[in-house]
Amino acid sequence: MQVDKMIIGGLPEPIGGVSSFLYRFATHCMGENDLFLDLYKAKTKYVIPKVKVKNTPFNNWLFRYIFIVINLFTNVSRVVHFHFSGIRSCYIFLFIPKRSERWILTLHSGKVGARLGCVSRFDKYFFKKVLAKFEVIHAISDQQVSFYLDYVEPQRVIRAPTYIPPSAPLLSQACTEDFVLQEQIGKMKSGGGHILMTSGYPSRIYNFDKFQSGILMMGDGYYGVVVVYGPGSEEYVSMQQGRSVDDRVLWVSGLTQPQFLRLQKEIDCYVRLTESDSFGIAVADSIELGTPVLATDVCKRYPGTVTIPSHDVEHWTRYLPVKMDLSFGCAAPWGFLSVVDTLYG
Prior knowledge:
Layout: E1 2-9, H1 17-29, E2 35-38, E3 52-55, H2 61-74, E4 76-84, E5 102-107, H3 121-131, E6 136-139, H4 142-148, E7 157-159, H5 168-176, H6 182-189, E8 194-200, H7 208-218, E9 222-228, H8 233-243, E10 249-253, H9 257-266, E11 269-272, H10 281-288, E12 293-296, E13 306-308, H11 340-344
Parallel strand pairs: 1-2, 1-4, 2-3, 4-5, 5-6, 6-7, 8-9, 8-11, 9-10, 11-12, 12-13
Helix pairs in contact: 5-9
């Protein structure tokens, strides 16, 4: 099959920062002549009108790689854009003969380039060979730019954060469908309570424990919502609910994109306490929706974000805006869409 762009990555579900970004990218930037290879098997999947999507039937990574190789050789494309996680997930490219397509690579892990001295000689040697196959490297942070420049020429590296605003239909759906947490949020708001929210995968880097401690320390009138997504999220939330000693912190999993966006509109402040580079699509969305944001300074944040030092996460409540309804105004256009023409030509 002849296509213009072939995008290789994951679409919701499972929902997460990367899959949400790729869903928005496909909605904004892909058309009838493009193909999306979805590498994540799930019972339900978001549908993208007018875009051809091939979903992998495999959970095993080896078979997913075979799925990629088969489609690379059975489809002729002008551009192939690979969206992977970290360095070692790229070793597949050592075994894939490259044709005449324009190859683009995006690695979404915030840990890429975090500790340059800890990358083994083995990784450095083969990663340089891998990058030699790509015409363009899309760096999502300044940290990644510094890392890639040890391997490739500067003109091959394009810096842009992975943010695309939610589409009008998605926002409309968020505002019109039933709000699944209406009862719980209503109780929190009664009597003038302030609601703060955080979100992420079931991982220590998101500092959910410090978020919860901060909420409980602030006392009555402050409530927390922790939204967990990705593999293992339901089990993680069940475990946290079993440990909970205070009903002022609500643990939630399984929200759809529209449901999550609706929740962002209902809260008073979004909080992101990551201690490693993690842009956070929810940070940008919250500001776009008019919700104040407090986030660590581990990476460049969306305009309007109130940042706190990552070494002081333990005391994050000190940095809260005095007024929870503080408005930061409209953010300027910023993000991935600004480099689309440069990437794809």
